[in-house]
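Final report, section 2: Outcomes. Of the targets proposed, ArsC family transcriptional regulator is the one most frequently requested by collaborating groups, and we therefore present its record in full.
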Amino acid sequence: MNIQVFGTKKSFDTKKAQRYFKERRVKFQFIDLAEKGMSKGELESVRRAVGGIDALVDPKAKDQDTVALLAYLSPDQKFDKLLENQHVLAEPVVRNGKQATVGYAPDVWKTWE
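The predicted structure is given below as tokens.
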């Protein structure tokens, strides 16, 4: 298992996800989206795993202008805009190889163990 947790240090759900894996002694890599975002390949892999770009966007993100703009763009434009503005991603994004979840999803993570 190669778990990656993408999120920010201030995100409550990201902290809960880290605690979930620590309590089960599952090694994971934390990537702070505020410091280092996802690569194009990582974002593409997560997009495929979660069923589309819309599942990645946090409708309650602070940057409501970008969230609103994403609703009017074509899928390719949405992907590029999300790659540039990763602060509107729903957190945490948890990857395990080709599998991924968005948000706090311990029910799915249990199946990975």
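The two ends are 8 Å apart (CA to CA).
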